[in-house]
Amino acid sequence: MQELDITVFVSVFIEMLGPLLFWLLVLAIVLVTTGFVWVLIRDRGLDSKRLVRAQVVGVLGGIAAILFMQWITSSGFRDIGGPVDLMLVALIFVLGAIGTAIFAYTIQAVVLGEPEEPLEAF
Amino acid sequence: MIDNARRRAGEAIEAFTNSTDRRRFIQLAAAAGLGGAWFLGPGAGRAAAVQTSARIVIAGAGAAGLATAARLSASLDGATITIIDGRKAHYYQPGFTLVAAGLKPESYAVSTTAQFVPRGVEWIEEAVAEIDPDADHVVTESGTRVPYDYLFVATGLRLDYDAIEGMSIDRIGKDGVGSVYASPEAATATYAEMSRFADRGGVGLFFRAETEMKCAGAPLKYTFITDDVLRRRGNRGRAELHYVCPQTSLFSVPIVAEKVRMLFADRGIETRFLHTIRAIEPGRKVAIFETAEGLTEMPYDFLNVVPPMRAAEAVRNSPLPWQDGPWANDGWVEVDRASLRHVRYPNVFAVGDVAGVPKGKTAASVKWQVPVAVEHLVEELAGRPCEAAYNGYTSCPLITKIGRAMLIEFDYENNLTPSFPGVIAPLEELWISWVMKETALKPTYVAMLRGQA
Q1: ipTM value of the model?
Q2: Residue A119: what pLDDT?
């Protein structure tokens, strides 16, 4: 086992996505995460209505992530062959769901502004 | 009691964070996100570059030649590095199977040599015509003599279609004849023939030649893919599939051979051993094999040709190949299997398909051979000893149907060397292995050409 260099991962992901998409995605992740933290601080908590809506969108985002992976790899649910495949499906779902939910919550909080009723501190 | 448990947990965490296994664990966890030992390797150029005025020639600008050029140029300062190859197009050969499965366009496997020649490396756009390791020079096809202090032979291999009587490259894509290897165009033409066969049924005949070959899993993969395409079109019952080879097993690693034997039995693929291809008669759609009992004919409606493979003429005509033993005839270069350094000419290395070492002629082998050979030269130029050794690691994502593969990794000793032991079973048909092949291998390959992986 030779050493692993973080630059190897960056290089591979840049080759996978192309430099433009890679850096746009990095930018998007940084922007959405920063925005999410900003609205948390601004609102001093999570608005439960917006959170539920974001979670619904998150579930759809998780399913979309699985279907997208199947689409780009010309495969489907019938190709799941073992427990590790189910774990991969779950991982893709969770990553897709969390990403989409955070994105959806942040967009709502930015567009709709501060909640009318003050939130309980979290 | 709770305090005891807490203390033990604390000790375990401390032991883990301090242990030498920690680094390996983190590597594995990180690599799991991508795809195994394929993805591990030293980053290029982290150590201070070694000062030298050495003239280094790389014969061949395929995967091994370009990866060597990238690593040498990052590791050396002041060296004159010259790479010699007349081919303008660069082929991502591991993608040929996917093109021949109808899943990817030809463009998926095609790029240019120019985009991977590192800055500061001179590229002579001519074929290598002659190698003279006694006089330390290479001669190009125009007669230019290029002297060297160190030589990397990375000329790849030659597909010897003409060694099969009645076969030539221009037969691919006609009369049921396919062959995945020759080019991206040949892979597309092979898919067209296979697809026609999958619509009609008949006899599908798959074989491999008697020589060493690149990616020995490829003929097996294409047999599995054809079986899957037939099933998807509802025509498997109208077809017979035969896999024929000169060897006595389906794969050089016994445990893998057994697994493939079981899968072939499951899929209804008939196997014949000790059959060596000698001729095809496209008019009659018959392949002729040599067996212990003499010549035998096998009819086909679709034929996947895996031709004999040998070193390039320039290498075969030089003193570099093995002088005796199983690799002498086909011209594979006589190198030490751990250092990739020539046994008789210590200033010569061979990497990639042309290296006369057991096991894989694959891009995964290249990825692990090149850093070792380069490190041996760099350390020699720096006046330091070098312990780097290549253990024969290679990898074969063996596709068993469209959507599943077995991530088989092994070494010189026929050991399985799984990157994720206990997580991704090497001998199971899994979607995760397919996903890796589809999404991560090509980016890793390209990063390897740039010396970044």
Answers
A1: 0.87
A2: 65
